[in-house]
């Protein structure tokens, strides 16, 4: 079942329903230089925040390719047409990513004239290879209106997603949403014709833009409800970007500064702002984007709280804004501008219904005896995202009685993007602080110095991880014993960090109470197994209660929170007395990569047997093994981030890769050997490691070396 809607503008909308097989556009086939394979190009974009930028680049590259091939109709592909196509595609792709969340299919086609695809156009094909009619032609068949009704050459662009039950955002919905796009409202005003096709497995929105001659002749004027004078300012699409259309009796001085380039300006500004992960950097970048394009000077205030001032944009008592960024067309006047603005931060009164988007308001021109510029018009715009006031943006331009309405709409749209970028940067900063605090608490502040033994540690959390699931420790247990541990929690993120926070203190407590290696593992295993059993019992009780119709007595935890398993290599080392060099080492491996010893002759041997993971079986019994670490010998302990480092289908430890790397470091000291293993692991694959990486090196010194 599919539903097709179409409109030559946004006034006449019709619908029809028919039954048709599921399908999906296929790739172009080989063709002549001016054939269908050249005139029709498609791309598949992932459903992530980068899809809109990729779509804009694809459209721009497609236009350039057509113009370079001098195809029929390509002589009318002007920069203005490219700007409008990029804007409409960006809106539709963003809409598909946000509301459908699926892969987005993008197709661009150059029609030499209406009703003709250039001859022999390649068929649209579904996932099983079956052909089906192009969406814009289905619209024409179902409604009697489509792209073929237009006159002259044109560009047809289709954006498809795989969530057919999610409707396209309507005009009223997009206008009412603070953080939303403009969707079909923008398309209906700019495109010559457009339509929506609903299929069983996907939804397609298409639109057609007319291609005029090289001099722009033949471009139809859009049917706006705005005053005719505004259209003469070439602000057709920029006016639509404002949250509410404004009328003006005549073009105001300075409106010529805002032209069709504003469309790509907003798109590129979004890309630049979203790439910043620090709120102050967002403020500085926003000021430099505005100056000198929209204003002569700009300043950005931010609240220092994590979430900004609550409520309707009104700060709580004691909350003050901080001037985070100032910029002026003349850098010599920035200090004077900052001095004038810091005297009185902008305080905008709250108003409007809860959840409504605040707008730009006129602001008094700030004067300074030293002077940094003549008087003029100034605007203040609150930065609001997620219902919270994050700050205020203030800008001004000299020589104007007030900003033109077209510029105000553009500024409001840009300020919404700045606010969202500030909110994202603050969320990232909070996450980064949490990660740093967890890492400091989960790892030892330093490693103990063992007499007669040189040590080295490498610890690298996975890139982008909050806190690593790997941990290490080397501490003085008293009575001439030093204990070491290298562990890896099954899982990642905060749940793994919580297990790490339990295991390391328990190890230290048991070791300092005099328990041996095997006894420490036995008690830690029982602790973790009982906690896991309590979790399973709680889930079983909840399921039973739900089956009986009663309310679950406990909350069912996520799978990651129930995982309490731990692989651990734990041991103790006792240096030989009298400074003779060497030490007695006792250790056990519970589900962990086995430790290796590099002898003075360059041979590598395994010094432990594999045993059960901790936390799996409560009554598991662990045994330890002892050996002499002779002077010059080296003990290497690693986590699976080392042994399971991937390069294609190969693992680092395939064919004893770790032992080979260790043997290649014969003669190196502990620190140099640790760096050698680390660099070898990183060089094994073309991409950074996708797991935490930790290794511990203990090397017995010769006689007389402490």
Automatic annotation (TrEMBL):
<dbReference type="GO" id="GO:0016791">
    <property type="term" value="F:phosphatase activity"/>
</dbReference>
<dbReference type="InterPro" id="IPR052016">
    <property type="entry name" value="Bact_Sigma-Reg"/>
</dbReference>
<feature type="region of interest" description="Disordered">
    <location>
        <begin position="1"/>
        <end position="49"/>
    </location>
</feature>
<dbReference type="InterPro" id="IPR029016">
    <property type="entry name" value="GAF-like_dom_sf"/>
</dbReference>
<keyword id="KW-0378">Hydrolase</keyword>
<protein>
    <submittedName>
        <fullName>SpoIIE family protein phosphatase</fullName>
    </submittedName>
</protein>
<dbReference type="InterPro" id="IPR036890">
    <property type="entry name" value="HATPase_C_sf"/>
</dbReference>
<dbReference type="InterPro" id="IPR003018">
    <property type="entry name" value="GAF"/>
</dbReference>
<dbReference type="Pfam" id="PF13581">
    <property type="entry name" value="HATPase_c_2"/>
</dbReference>
<feature type="region of interest" description="Disordered">
    <location>
        <begin position="111"/>
        <end position="179"/>
    </location>
</feature>
<dbReference type="InterPro" id="IPR001932">
    <property type="entry name" value="PPM-type_phosphatase-like_dom"/>
</dbReference>
<dbReference type="Pfam" id="PF01590">
    <property type="entry name" value="GAF"/>
</dbReference>
<feature type="compositionally biased region" description="Basic and acidic residues">
    <location>
        <begin position="124"/>
        <end position="139"/>
    </location>
</feature>
<feature type="compositionally biased region" description="Low complexity">
    <location>
        <begin position="140"/>
        <end position="150"/>
    </location>
</feature>
<dbReference type="InterPro" id="IPR036457">
    <property type="entry name" value="PPM-type-like_dom_sf"/>
</dbReference>
<dbReference type="InterPro" id="IPR003594">
    <property type="entry name" value="HATPase_dom"/>
</dbReference>
<dbReference type="Pfam" id="PF07228">
    <property type="entry name" value="SpoIIE"/>
</dbReference>
<feature type="domain" description="PPM-type phosphatase">
    <location>
        <begin position="453"/>
        <end position="700"/>
    </location>
</feature>
């Amino acid at each position: 079942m599919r539903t097709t809607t179409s409109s030559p503008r946004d006034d006449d909308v019709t619908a029809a329903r028919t039954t048709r097989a599921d399908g999906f556009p296929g790739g172009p086939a080989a063709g002549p230089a001016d054939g269908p394979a050249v005139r029709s190009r498609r791309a598949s974009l992932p459903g992530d925040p980068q899809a809109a930028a990729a779509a804009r680049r694809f459209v721009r590259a497609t236009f350039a390719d057509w113009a370079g091939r001098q195809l029929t109709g390509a002589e009318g592909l002007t920069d203005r047409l490219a700007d409008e196509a990029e804007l409409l595609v960006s809106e539709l792709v963003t809409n598909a990513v946000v509301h459908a969340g699926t892969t987005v299919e993008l197709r661009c086609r150059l029609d030499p004239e209406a009703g003709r695809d250039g001859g022999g156009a390649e068929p649209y094909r579904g996932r099983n290879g079956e052909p089906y009619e192009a969406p814009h032609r289905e619209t024409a068949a179902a409604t009697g209106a489509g792209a073929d009704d237009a006159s002259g050459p044109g560009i047809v662009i289709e954006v498809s997603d795989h969530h057919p039950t999610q409707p396209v955002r309507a005009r009223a919905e997009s206008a009412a949403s603070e953080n939303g796009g403009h969707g079909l409202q923008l398309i209906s005003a700019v495109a010559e014709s457009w339509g929506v096709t609903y299929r069983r497995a996907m939804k397609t929105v298409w639109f057609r833009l007319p291609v005029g001659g090289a001099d722009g002749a033949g471009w139809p004027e859009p049917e706006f409800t705005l005053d005719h004078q505004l259209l003469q300012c070439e602000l057709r699409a920029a006016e639509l970007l404002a949250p509410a259309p404004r009328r003006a009796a005549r073009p105001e001085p300075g409106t010529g500064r805002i032209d069709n380039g504003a469309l790509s300006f907003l798109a590129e500004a979004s890309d630049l702002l979203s790439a910043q992960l620090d709120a102050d950097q967002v403020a500085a970048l926003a000021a430099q984007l505005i100056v000198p394009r929209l204003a002569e000077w700009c300043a950005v205030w931010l609240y220092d709280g994590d979430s900004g001032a609550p409520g309707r944009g009104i700060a709580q008592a004691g909350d003050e804004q901080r001037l985070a960024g100032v910029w002026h067309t003349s850098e010599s006047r920035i200090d004077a501008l900052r001095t004038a603005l810091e005297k009185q931060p902008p305080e905008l009164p709250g108003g409007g219904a809860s959840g409504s988007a605040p707008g730009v308001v006129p602001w008094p021109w700030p004067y300074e005896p030293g002077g940094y510029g003549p008087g003029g018009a100034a605007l203040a715009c609150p930065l609001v995202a997620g219902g919270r006031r994050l700050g205020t943006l203030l800008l001004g331009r000299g020589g104007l009685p007030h900003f033109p309405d077209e510029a105000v709409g553009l500024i409001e749209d840009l300020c919404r993007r700045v606010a969202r970028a500030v909110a994202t940067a603050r969320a990232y900063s909070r996450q980064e602080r949490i990660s740093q605090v967890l890492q400091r608490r989960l790892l030892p502040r330093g490693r103990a110095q063992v007499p007669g033994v040189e040590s080295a540690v490498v610890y690298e959390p996975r890139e982008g991880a909050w806190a690593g699931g790997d941990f290490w420790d080397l501490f003085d247990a008293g009575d001439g014993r030093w204990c070491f541990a290298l562990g890896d929690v099954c899982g990642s993120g905060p749940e793994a960090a919580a297990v790490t926070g339990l295991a390391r203190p328990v190890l230290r407590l048991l070791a300092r109470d005099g328990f041996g290696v095997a006894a420490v593992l036995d008690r830690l295993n029982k602790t973790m197994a009982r906690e896991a059993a309590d979790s399973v019992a709680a889930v079983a009780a909840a399921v039973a209660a739900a089956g009986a119709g009663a309310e679950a007595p406990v909350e069912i935890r996520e799978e990651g929170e129930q995982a309490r398993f731990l692989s651990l290599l734990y041991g103790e080392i006792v240096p030989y007395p009298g400074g003779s060099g060497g030490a007695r080492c006792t250790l056990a491996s519970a589900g962990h990569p086995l430790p290796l010893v590099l002898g003075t002759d360059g041979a590598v041997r395994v010094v432990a047997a594999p045993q059960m993971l901790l936390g799996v079986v409560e009554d598991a019994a662990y045994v330890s093994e002892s050996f002499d670490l002779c002077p010059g010998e080296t003990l290497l302990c690693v986590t699976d981030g080392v042994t399971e480092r991937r390069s294609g289908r190969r693992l680092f430890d395939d064919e004893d890769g770790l032992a080979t790397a260790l043997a290649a470091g014969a003669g190196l000291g502990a620190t140099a050997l640790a760096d050698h293993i680390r660099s070898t692991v990183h060089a094994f694959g073309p991409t950074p490691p996708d797991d935490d990486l930790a290794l511990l090196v203990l090397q017995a010194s010769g006689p007389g070396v402490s």
